[in-house]
Amino acid sequence: MDALTELLTTDFRPLDRKAFDLYLAAVAQVKPDALALPTPCPDWTVHGLLRHQVSQDEGFAAAARGDGARLANWRNGDLGDDPAAAARTSAGLVTAAFAEVSLDQEMVLPEVREGGGFPASLAISFHFVDLVVHAWDLATAIGVPWEPSEELVAASLKVAAIVPTGPDDRGPGQAFDRLVPAPDGASPADRLLALLGRRPR
């Protein structure tokens, strides 16, 4: 079975919930004075990263409900006075929306591709891998451990393997930075980070 077929036939919803556990554990450790810290994502502070993930959760939830084409659904995340509570709320929103979707239903993701959509099985895998890697971005920014399970890393590597790597697909303004060479003997987790443009530390 090729990589894409495997992703299309895998239900990522249980893995997505486990990825939320990983991500929200890091969010819970963010102190108010850490919100202005830079993250490994050049365009985002900790506040910006948290807001981005809330916006993504809301966008993916809208896409699961058949309303993903409107960019406004992907841009209006609000952390309010309690970023951790906002993160938990958006996690609950998108998890509930995913639970209702059929895996062969089309989900329109305008921030990934203009025009057309993706089968929900594949779209959910994109949300999943974002959570796993944004958990690393956040943990690195605030100086706490990032310890995904072997299951999460193995599944994330399968998704990362299909992310385009061309010069027009990676870099500033794109979802992921350019590939980073992984050193010989790198762990699976470090290979995942390198595949998605992160520099393991």
From TrEMBL:
InterPro entries: CHP03086, DinB/YfiT-like, Maleyloyr_isom, MDMPI_metal-binding
Occurrences of domain Mycothiol-dependent maleylpyruvate isomerase metal-binding (ranges): 23-139
Coiled-coil portions: none
Any Pfam family matching the protein: MDMPI_N
Annotated Gene3D superfamilies: dinb family like domain (1.20.120.450)
NCBIfam families recorded: maleylpyruvate isomerase family mycothiol-dependent enzyme, TIGR03086 family metal-binding protein
Protein name: TIGR03086 family metal-binding protein
UniProt organism field: Actinomadura fibrosa
